[in-house]
Amino acid sequence: MKWQGRRRSSNVQDARGRRVTSGGSGIGSIVNLVLRIFGIKGIAVLAVVGLIGWQMGIIDPAALMGGQQVRTVDHQASPEEEQLFQFVTVVLADTEDTWTAEFTRLGRQYAEPELVVYRGQHQTACGMGDARMGPFYCPADQKVYIDLGFYNDLENQFDAPGDFAQAYVIAHEVGHHIQTLLGVSAKVSARRGQPDYNEYSVRLELQADYLAGVWAYHNQRYLDRGDIEEAMRAANQIGDDAIQSRTQGRVTPHAFTHGTSEQRMRWFLRGFENGRLEDGDTFVGPYENL
Fold first, then answer.
1. Helices (H) and strands (E) in the chain, counts
2. Residues 290, 206: contact at Cβ < 8 Å?
3. I want to staple 81 with a disulfide (CB 3.0 to 4.6 A). Which of 11, 77, 167, 171 is the partner?
4. Which pTM was predicted?
């Protein structure tokens, strides 16, 4: 993929220097201590300091309430990691250009998501994000989260190397942002707890794969030979059936949440061949025909 020297998105938050540690006493213990020593006036001062700290981004109230602490460390990225960081900022910029144009074509305005690059754990509006979850999108704050260490897993654990495979991962998560803007995600979330929720989850994920393919269609001028094959290999390796077979030695279709390898490859390729946002409705037709 031709990405070096190109525009980088400004909607990227570098949180690699933030660390979440557990075992803190929580806000209740702090309040009790201040109350014993300074009385009611001390609580008032604590509230003012807390408000100022929150506004300045120094204090994370969610972490305090959960008995967790956020501290800032001096993160020294390796040259390889720093190159990956620059790479994802270019990929995000590509998605911004693609979806701004597509939304404009349909008479809508595209609200750009933020990409948060973190290490280990990070507090989100959807709960505590963990690197072991892989990249994910949080509809509550409309942000994509990624620990760049995932790309090592993508290459070594999933046997899906290549920069375009890495770009596909970002484009898929941005696809979930598109679904949030269009109201699709909310409709699926409303079915949580219903017997057919997993089927709707699969439909949602396959549509995100389609949208990643649409993004690839509009960025063909930046592709190198073999890039689409890299994305298809990644889609193949992270299908539910492939992951279940690899991790538990058997396939259980009723537990699928993302779709089979064949489905994920097919919907990505359909988006790449079609290039139109509105033609990727995975919610019509029988589930077994996806």
1. 10, 8
2. yes
3. 77
4. 0.82
Compute CA 182 distance to the chain's CA centroid, rounded to the nearest angstrom.
Answer: 17
Q: Give CA–CA dist 252/245, Å, rounded.
A: 9
Pairing of strands 114-118, 143-146: parallel
Q: What three-state secondary structure class fits 110?
A: coil
For residue 261, the cross-strand partners are none
Q: Over the range 151-178, which residues count as b (16 or more CB within 10 Å of their CB) and which as e? A: beebeeebebebbbbbbbbbbbbbbbbb
**DSSP 3-state helix, strand, coil percentages of the chain (rounded to 5)?**
55, 10, 30
Let me know: does 170 contact 91? Beta carbons within 8 Å: yes
* The token pair that represents 80 in the structure block: 């390889």
**How is residue 144 written in tokens?**
């994509």
pLDDT at 83: 94
pLDDT (tens digit, 9 = 90+) per residue, 108-130? Answer: 999 999 999 999 999 999 999 89
Q: What is the pLDDT of residues 230-279, one digit of tens each?
A: 999 999 999 999 999 988 999 999 889 999 999 999 999 999 999 999 99
- CA gap 154, 164 in Å, rounded: 12
Domain locations along the chain: 23-72, 76-289
Read off the pLDDT band of 76 (50, 70, 90).
Answer: confident
Cα-based distances in Å from 184 to 20, 104, 181: 32, 19, 8
Distance CA 259, CA 280 (A): 15
Are 122 and 72 in contact by the 8 Å Cβ rule? The answer is no
Q: Is 120 helix (H, G, I), strand (E, B) or coil?
A: coil
Mean pLDDT value of segment 39-59: 54
